[in-house]
Amino acid sequence: MSHLSRAERQCLVVYGRRRVGKTTLVTSALDELEDTSVYYLCDERGATHNARRFAA
């Protein structure tokens, strides 16, 4: 959690096998922050597709 509470803006990528609790872990950690956060769930269509969707 200390990594998430730093003053400077950061990007944190979480990846791994399906159905092991990644989404639960991330949403739980973000709920504890007092600062604004963004959560984006990528799909398997590739980095370009996900970057365009995130930027929209």
TrEMBL record:
Superkingdom of this protein's organism: Archaea
InterPro entries, per database record: P-loop_NTPase (IPR027417)
Gene3D superfamilies, per the entry: P-loop containing nucleotide triphosphate hydrolases
Protein name in UniProt: Archaeal ATPase
Source organism of this protein record: Haloquadratum walsbyi J07HQW1
Taxonomic lineage from the root: Archaea, Methanobacteriati, Methanobacteriota, Stenosarchaea group, Halobacteria
